[in-house]
Write a structure and sequence with these properties.
This protein is mainly beta. It has one domain: Sandwich (Jelly Rolls). The chain has one helix and ten strands; from the N terminus they run E-E-E-E-E-E-E-E-E-E-H. Strands 1-2-9-4-7 form a five-stranded antiparallel β-sheet, with no helix packed on it. It has a three-stranded antiparallel β-sheet with strand order 6-5-8, with no helix packed on it. The longest helix is centred in the C-terminal third of the chain and has 4 residues.
Length: 109
């Protein structure tokens, strides 16, 4: 993970460049003001709580609403790089982490 841009106060936006190895993924998590992901390389898998897993390719973007529980990572056979943009809350928190994503959630069949 590489921080590539961060606004100074009173701004709260942050941009990160994140590399995932094949099959790797985040834990379930939320963002206080939501998040935008933009896939730069490879294939991404993303899922919002209660919805199906979606695959995205280079040039695709997805938005998560404030407080929306979700995860994202690379496809099983490809590395993936995405740009993540989110805002920090008044305490500087951008992410609240939850439980790990199970293999069954990652590869529903």
């Amino acid at each position: 993970m590489q921080a590539i841009a961060e606004q100074q106060a009173p701004g709260r936006a942050r941009a990160l460049l994140i590399h995932f190895t094949p099959g790797s993924r985040t834990a379930w998590h939320t963002h206080p003001f939501g998040q935008i992901l933009h896939v730069l390389l490879g294939r991404a898998r993303v899922q919002c709580d209660g919805e199906e897993v979606v695959e995205l390719g280079p040039g695709s973007s997805i938005r998560f609403d404030a407080g929306e529980n979700h995860w994202h990572g690379a496809a099983p056979d490809q590395a993936m790089v995405h740009l993540a943009i989110q805002e920090a809350d008044e305490q500087g928190v951008t992410t609240t982490w939850g439980r790990h994503v199970t293999d069954a959630e990652y590869q529903p069949d």
